[in-house]
């Protein structure tokens, strides 16, 4: 039974005492195990377990100038299309010895700047951001910080540092071409009010060639907001033939509301989403969507950060992962 107070963090002194070794031996067993015996390492590791000791990584980071921490910023973890990116980012970074620390912005520009300031102040080894940073002040501060930065899920020829993503304007344009190819004339849009969703809407409308009735909902979108959006759109045009949605969650809600109103999908109303959420292939009807390889975005972002941390040159700081339309029953 150890005598360390449960309200006081264990120290290296506590570990040395529990293991019956000197302070310097305990330190070497944890930080440079090659210079001590296997038996000593075993005793020190057992003492670490019994005392609950957690090494002070900040102190080590001051010496090595590495925190072994990468900051990740997402709008909201409830948005399922970002989860494969976060999972792949976590796995790839962990394999290189780094831990991912997450912050959420709730699609709010001021919150994003606040989260970024907090992360910069803690000097992580890198920062991975969902989307392009909108605040010029935040962009300038990130550049001055010298911290490797990867913006994701968007595309720019002038990123803060590096970017892995795709063009939302091109996604919208491709969906517009898909809708025109189907011959639909009376078209509506159900869209989140965030920057990336608006970009897709702009690309869609440009390809269609005219202003379209649009129901905007606050991001992050949901099934409930999708149901509301369809109600708004049908008030504007009861004879709609097809609706383009800015997310699969929104499309799911539109489908549920359409069926509740006695509309057949896609015979009376065709519906398309975005993001290829895992549930989309299993709803009835299944949801047509746009697939983006979120896991690949996470893997590439992690590789760029790790390469920069190792002092390696990055040959391709702008990476376009592309996208593809997935046709299912709802269209």
Describe, in plain words, how this protein is organized in 3D.
This protein has 331 residues and is of the alpha/beta class. It is built from 12 helices and 12 strands. The strands form 3 sheets. The chain has a 6-stranded parallel beta sheet with strand order 2-1-3-4-5-11. The chain has a 4-stranded parallel beta sheet with strand order 7-6-8-9, with helices on both faces. The longest helix is centred in the C-terminal third of the chain and has 16 residues, at 294-309. It is elongated and about 80 Å long. The protein starts with 11 loop residues before the first helix and ends in a 5-residue tail after the last strand.
The largest sheet is:
6 strands, parallel
Can you write the helix and strand succession as a string?
HHHHEHEHEHEEHEHEHEHEEHEE
What do the pLDDT scores average to? 91
Helicity range of the residues? 40-55%
Task: Give the uncertain stretches in residue-range form.
Answer: none
Distance between the termini: 65 Å
State which percent range the strand residues make up: 15-25%
Task: Give a topology summary.
Elements: H1 12-19, H2 23-31, H3 38-51, H4 57-64, E1 69-74, H5 83-95, E2 99-104, H6 109-121, E3 126-130, H7 136-145, E4 149-152, E5 162-165, H8 168-182, E6 187-192, H9 195-208, E7 214-217, H10 223-236, E8 242-245, H11 248-260, E9 270-272, E10 289-291, H12 294-309, E11 318-320, E12 324-326
Parallel strand pairs: 1-2, 1-3, 3-4, 4-5, 5-11, 6-7, 6-8, 8-9
Antiparallel strand pairs: 10-12
Helix pairs in contact: 1-2, 1-3, 2-3, 5-12, 6-7, 8-9, 10-11
């Amino acid at each position: 039974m150890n005598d360390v107070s449960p309200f006081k963090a264990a120290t290296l002194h506590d570990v040395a005492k529990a293991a019956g070794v000197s302070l310097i031996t305990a330190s070497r067993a944890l930080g440079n195990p090659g210079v001590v015996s296997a038996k000593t390492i075993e005793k020190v590791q057992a003492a670490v377990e019994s005392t609950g000791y957690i090494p002070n990584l900040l102190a080590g980071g001051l010496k090595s100038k590495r925190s072994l921490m990468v900051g990740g910023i997402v709008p909201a973890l409830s948005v399922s299309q970002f989860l494969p990116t976060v999972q792949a980012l976590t796995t790839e970074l962990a394999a290189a010895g780094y831990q991912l620390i997450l912050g959420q912005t709730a699609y709010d520009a001021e919150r994003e700047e606040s989260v970024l300031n907090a992360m910069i102040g803690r000097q992580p080894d890198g920062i991975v951001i969902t989307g392009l940073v909108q605040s010029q002040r935040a962009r300038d501060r990130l550049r001055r910080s010298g911290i490797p930065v990867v913006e994701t899920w968007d595309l720019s020829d002038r990123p803060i540092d590096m970017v892995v993503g795709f063009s939302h304007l091109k996604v919208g344009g491709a969906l517009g071409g898909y809708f025109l190819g189907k011959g639909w004339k009376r078209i509506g849009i159900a869209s989140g009010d965030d920057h990336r969703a608006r970009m897709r809407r702009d690309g869609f409308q440009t390809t269609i060639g005219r202003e379209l009735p649009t129901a905007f909902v606050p991001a992050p979108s949901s099934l409930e907001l999708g149901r509301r959006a369809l109600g708004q759109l049908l008030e504007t045009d009861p004879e709609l033939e097809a609706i383009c949605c800015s997310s699969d969650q929104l499309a799911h809600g539109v489908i549920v509301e359409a069926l509740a109103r006695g509309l057949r999908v896609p015979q009376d109303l065709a519906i398309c989403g975005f993001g290829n959420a895992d549930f989309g292939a299993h709803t009835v009807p299944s949801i047509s969507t746009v697939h983006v390889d979120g896991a690949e975005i996470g893997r590439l972002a992690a590789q760029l950060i790790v390469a920069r941390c190792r002092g390696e040159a990055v040959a391709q700081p702008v990476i376009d992962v592309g996208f593809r339309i997935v046709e299912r029953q709802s269209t």
